[in-house]
Amino acid sequence: MSRTMTFSALPKTADELQAMPESALTSPFQTACLTVLALLRYEQSPQDCLDMLNILKGIQPMSAYETEFLRDRLGGRGYIPRSFLAGTSPKNNYQPSVPYCLTLEETPYSYAQEGYVSLYVRSSGADFPRQIKLRTKGKQWFLWEQFLLTDIRLPVQEDSRS
Fold first, then answer.
1. Rounded distance, CA 122 to CA 114, Å?
2. How many Å is the Cα radius of gyration of the chain?
3. Residue-wise DSSP of 36-59
4. Could you give the CA distance from residue 37 to residue 40 in angstroms, rounded to a whole number?
5. Backbone dihedral angles phi then psi of residue 141, each to the nearest 5 degrees
6. Type and span of the H or E element at 126
7. Strands (E), the chain
8. Helix (H, G, I), strand (E, B) or coil at 16
9. Are 120 and 104 in contact, with CB atoms under 8 Å apart?
10. Left if phi > 0, otherwise alpha if psi is -120 to 50, otherwise beta: which for 92?
């Protein structure tokens, strides 16, 4: 099963994220989608990104390691999270179309571990989908870990081979 979520605007702050209907976090798809939207903010404001991710993580905030990992993976690579949005490609330097659309997929093994779910999102710069793992607590789903930030094909404007 896959689910596509559409947004006319992207959240810029934790308050804007919390004002979105998806922030109820009652579905793993909502939490996974908001994770990508939070990562999109890193390029303009690392602190806003971290604040949003901390909301999505619930009572387990971002660790120093996770924060450092984001800095290492996203510094100068804002195109990586953009690559998950519809309309992007290395040829258009990963510029998404508006409204912003994000498709998440589950597999037959997504719910193999009780209390957790793994959802997948495709990057237009990678050959295989990337995983977001979520955990349930009560009636909400929280970000457990994400495997979204491995390298992808360079945007044309940054690829010296082009």
1. 24
2. 15
3. HHHHHTTTT-HHHHHHHHHHHHTT
4. 5
5. -115, 135
6. none
7. 2-7, 100-105, 116-121, 130-137, 140-146
8. helix
9. yes
10. alpha
Give per-residue pLDDT as tens, 59-80: 889 999 999 999 999 999 999 9
Tell whether the model's pLDDT for residue 162 goes beyond 70.
Answer: no
3 state SS of 143:
strand
Distance of CA 3 to the CA centre of its chain: 14
Name the residue type at position 2.
S
Q: What is the DSSP letter of 29?
A: H
| Residue 56 · residue 49 · CB < 8 Å | no
The bridge status of strand 100-105 relative to strand 2-7 is: antiparallel
User: In which residue are the tokens 């179309």 written?
Assistant: 97
pTM: 0.95
DSSP type of residue 115? T
